[in-house]
Hints:
The protein is of the alpha+beta class. 28% of the residues lie in helices and 27% in strands. The chain is built from eight helices and 18 strands. It has helices at 2-5, 24-27, 44-50, 58-84, 217-220, 263-271, 286-308, 320-345; strands at residues 9-11, 35-37, 85-87, 94-95, 110-117, 123-132, 134-136, 141-149, 158-164, 171-182, 187-194, 200-201, 227-234, 246-247, 253-261, 276-279, 282-285, 355-357. A six-stranded antiparallel β-sheet has the order 9-8-11-5-13-14, with no helix packed on it. Strands 4-15-6-10 form a four-stranded antiparallel β-sheet, with no helix packed on it. α4 crosses α7 and α4 (58-84) packs parallel to α8. The radius of gyration is 26 Å and the shape is elongated.
Amino acid sequence: MDCLENVIGLISEDCNCRNPPSTFPxxxxxxxxxxxxxxxxxxxxxxEDAVFCGTGGVYELLKDSRASAVKDFVRDFKREISMRYExxxxxxxxxxxxxxxxxxxxxxxxxxxxxxxxxxxxGIFVLDGVELNFRxxxxxxxxxxxxxxxxxxxxxxxxxxxxxxxxxxxxxxxFSSPVVVETQCEKDLFVVYQxxxxxxxxxxxxxMSCNTCGGSxxxxxxxxxxxxxxxxxVDNTADLKFTGNxxxxxxxxxxxxxxxxxxxxxxxxATSTTTRLTLGGDAFLASDAIARAIMHQSRVLLGQTLIRxxxxxxxxxxxxxxxLVSQSIDYDYERYQEYLKLIASTYPTETTDCLISRSSxxxxxx
Length: 366
């Protein structure tokens, strides 16, 4: 969400507080020319009168309001989209068989999965980690799991080393940062672990891909509509490839993976381009609508904080001042909802393959 942070700035005028943090020039940058605090909203002097200068003061209050508004906007935008569309792909969170009744005897140093995503515009394949199961596992066995990009096998994208205890059970290994792949084009990933000495993996099976993404097998294994999967065993990571030494073996591994429509990616691109949306024959810049939505929600949160927080000097919030803040909150909330619904209702569905219109029950683009 960093791409939305400086769509609006913090302050459009000088502040009497003379101790801004060193990051203020960067924090106050605005790609839209809009700001949280300005003369057309809650006056800045009102904010200054209501908080202490310096740490915990005006700057932090405005920055916190904007950060929370960005989170609210992304959440609410996804909700609005979900009311209009549904995923063309059934959800999933794991890849690989659960049953592991036997041993898988391996004479290779690296084993795991090769995956190849189908070209699906506007989607992202997310790999959060793996689960491992061994039929034989010496106490205190150390296992290293690595993820490689098929276009560059020189170094892993991520590495996770764990100590496992107990055979015949699934051990969860979570990556410190998820591996995210845009599915615009066909892409290969390899998820492998280095075979530990004395260990024998369970013989679970992975799901082999069907010839057509929409086949019946993808109903039982919904990930097959997004990604092909192969078991793989090699002596060196330099030998990793999607064809060749591949099988339907799971080698005691399951992937913690999912597929999402990349709505945030579209929002990020729209803020830095001249993307135009159309409603009722009228065209408008998506970047302007996004900036105004975030600005109005920032002002809603700012006003609520002025009224509720214990940091505020309540004596400055009496009478007409309280009324002005309340009116501002109501006004900005209405404008926020208007811009939010405007953006969601004009979302350019031609940019994605992964949504189905709820009204027509058809895939938007394939």
